Amino acid sequence: MTNQNLILSAVFIPLCLAFALPFIGKLRQNARNVFALLLALAAFACSTALLPAVLKGDIINVFKALQLGFNFSFIADPLAVFMAIVSSFISAVIILYSFGYISHYKNQNEYYLMVVLFLGAMMGLVFSANLIFLYIFWEITAITSWRLIGFFREKQHVLRADKAFMVTVFGALLMLVGFIRLGQEMGSYDLFVIKDAISIHPVSNVTIALILAGIFSKSATLPFQTWLPDAGVAPSPVTALLHAAVLVKIGVYVFARIFVATIPLTQFWHAAVPMAAGISALVAAGAALVETDLKRIIAYSTISQIGFIFLGLSMGSELGFAGGLLYILMHGLAKAGLFLCAGIVEQNTRTKDITKLGGLITAMPVTAISFLFCAFSVMGIPPFGGFFAKYMVIAATLGGRHFIIAAIFIIGAFLTILYLFRAFNMVFLGQVKTSAPGEKEPVMVFSVALLAVLSLAGGIFIRYPNEIAQLSCAGLPGIFK
Amino acid sequence: MLSLFVSIPFLSLIVFNIPGKHSTRLALFWSAFLFIAQSALALLFSTGIINPVARQLSRIFIFKLSLDPLSLLLLLSIGVAAFAALLAGNNLFREKSQKSNFINLLMVAVIGMNATVLAADLFSVYIFMEIVAVSSFVLISIQKDRLALEGAFKYMVMSSIATCLMLVSIALIILVCGDTDFGVVASGLCAQSGNPIVKLAIGLFLCGLFIKSGLVPFHGWLPDAYSAAPSAVSVLLAGIITKVTGVYVLMRLVISVFGINPAIQNLLMLAGAVSIAFGALAALTQHDFKRMLAYSSISQVGYIILGLGCATPLAIAGAAFHFFNHTIFKTLLFINAAAVEKQAGSIHMDNLGGLSEKMPVTGATSVIALLSTAGIPPLAGFWSKLIIIMALWSAGNFAYAYIAVIFSVVTLAYFLSMQRRVFFGKLALSLESVKEAGAGITIPAALLAGITVAAGVGFFWVLDKLILPIQEILR
């Protein structure tokens, strides 16, 4: 298969074949589950197969000119391939975990359809090099997360699903206006053309602010963060997929794609974005400290950690950018692991309230250890993967002489350690308060153990992901000082 | 050749009504075939502009048909909407005589609409609009219940006011220009644009058309008429009838007759923006499914008028595309409402809930329709709104562009609330025994949803074939 076809298959295999899942599900449930996993693995395989060419320094492009400047344009560079591999891999693990978790509930056909459709849209978004197509895939992810958050159909859940949909669509529409402005200012919606035109026309600040509003709403950064903890009512694999590993990274990725790889930000934004991210990181960390619902704690932690990623990406240095990318990987693995552990705890004890839990380590040893490993990675304890990412991001901030911002984030990192230990302590250690029947579903336990091991392995073998991250920087010549 | 679009339905109507024994079923199949054939013809033949020689009826009154890409898109919309309404009506009306009356009146309305779309002189347009209006009064009151008669009466009163205004305006135009042919009138009005009589004539005509299209502040009759009419009729009324007799005629006259000038542009954009805002905000507060859809209609028509008011070639094409999309998704939503009313026995949204589980086709198609209305990609409604917003932006109408964007969120809000109260969510206890509606409802619903998705995904084909040619009519 040519590299062009690999890109197209990575996107359109999950996107189109997802619609076959409900029909397969009508015939055989198991066949549907396996097929869903195969679709995710196909996306993963196609993205990984792009790696050799991309590592050689090729940039693969699929382009078809269409009317009104809505050109169909896909591009695979190290940044896109890195993101595609991370999201498709984590999605595949989450689908595997769903085999166990979701098997007790109604509407499974819709569930698998939406999850795979979401993955397809994510792949499309990652490879898009035209703003209009990027927006289309962006909104498909919003539609699917709306259905997934409302999965249990309780009144409260559907209301919160609507809230998440509304907030992200509102942001996305502002972003669309930003895209239209950008398109009119630059004369094209193609990122290549915009990149070339940038030296002649500077981009107005209003345009940047509009696009940032969309990005922040998707990535649940202050002031658009409120939908994310509320969306914790979704089934745990969904929260893992949407709110930890993949969906919130969309905003971060588009930030990297537009504001790092295409339009270098001006000095003002280099100060403003980290400041917004820092406030978001601190406020969310504070909320995580007082929250008693396990999934909400982890959700606030996501908001807080996203701040670190924005910090790295917006520093404008190679170290920060590479750190931000590694952060996406490490945080995706570890946070998905935390949410999935929370899912196991919730399903076995029927509560998410950490004040009613305790001492679960004896009943669920593997889950407890996996939770701890993933938590270590999020906290940034060496030699877990999260440490290297956090170190690089903070080092880049200090290197850029942003001492106040660095201080804010170091406080944020301390708070992370506090609230995660608090959660671990209250759920797994101490007195046994609820009877737990133990870890029932082996696929679920296997999935969290896999993520925990990878969080550790990601740190020990940091060389390999780091190489791709460095190449992504090298693929953006002239951007970094 | 063009007159076949009018004469074949007309002959069919005569044949349906030859005294003696006849079968409703045959009439149903023949009408369905005609509507499909009309849509297929409109899709297959992309044309430039056909302008046959006028047939002189008298010194002033001529009868002339012409076809351009805009009328072609309208013929397609009429064919699809009439087909969907036909199947739905056949399913929803129980008595045989009502079925047969419905088919006949639908045929009258289609004759009127086809002719309105093809006519190229003011007086013919007026006459055919009246034919459509009269058939819709009867359609609304077809079941002779109190509420429907009231709705029909309101519609008739408003419609006759509009008629008077337009008739006076035509008289004034004949006074000034001595003719009713679009081309002649256009140059006549242009030559005398300072004349106060011309201004009065244009103003009166626009007022009449605003009433007919249900634009704010002339929208009062519209929710009553839509919600009082029998479900199958409201499908037809909301989907296509008011759109052709109001919105299309407005587009046609502004583009081809009155000419585009800043005063008309500002008036249209203002009316469009106010309708968008008012319709969307009013829809937020509704409890009745059909009334909510009616207010949503006002809001969506506002987008079409906003695009028309912007008046660049791209904006007109976007407005026409939104017209087509609106026909498809609003017809679909009214069919969904009809299905809910028939199966669950209520359209009061607070009494419903979780119907997707029992009515999967209705639930899924309503999601597609609402996302398209709210302009969420990759559905067709997204592209038409995007084109309108882009056109507003490049013409420098930034404030209107922002209004168009912001009210997309409000559109999403009221539709999500509808979805939450009717389809999504837990099944209400009283609805345990509800079943999916019959094939007469689900087939058109699936078809229309399919068109929405196909026109969204295959947007570039649609754009090339149907939408971008519309820009030519401005040149």
Characterize the structure shown.
Chain A is an all-alpha fold and 481 residues long. Chain A has a domain at 273-481. Chain A is 75% helix and 2% strand. Chain A is built from 21 helices and two strands. The longest helix of chain A has 32 residues, at 155-186. Chain A is globular, with a radius of gyration of 21 Å. The two termini of chain A are 38 Å apart. The mean pLDDT of chain A is 88. The model of chain B has no long low-confidence stretch (mean pLDDT 88). Chain B has a two-stranded antiparallel sheet with strand order 1-2. Chain B is 76% helix and 1% strand. The two termini of chain B are 25 Å apart. Chain B is built from 19 helices and two strands. The longest helix of chain B is centred in the middle third of the chain and has 32 residues, at 146-177. In chain B, helix 11 (262-284) runs parallel beside helix 17 (398-422). Chain B has 475 residues and is mostly helical. Chain B has a domain at 260-475. Chain B has helices at residues 4-16, 24-44, 69-92, 96-118, 122-140, 146-177, 182-191, 196-213, 221-228, 231-258, 262-284, 289-310, 313-344, 355-358, 360-373, 380-394, 398-422, 439-457, 459-467, and strands at 55-56, 62-63. At the A-B interface, helix 6 and helix 7 of A face helix 16, helix 17 and helix 19 of B.
Helical/strand content category of chain B: mainly alpha
The average pLDDT of chain A is: 88
Number of helices of chain A: 21
Treating each run of at least 4 consecutive H or I residues as one helix, how many helices of chain B? 19
**What is the structural class of chain A?**
mainly alpha
Largest sheet: number of strands, sense, barrel closure of chain B? 2 strands, antiparallel
Order of SSEs of chain A: HHHEEHHHHHHHHHHHHHHHHHH
Features of the shown structure:
heterodimer; A: 481 residues; mainly alpha; 21 helices; B: 475 residues; two-stranded antiparallel ribbon; globular
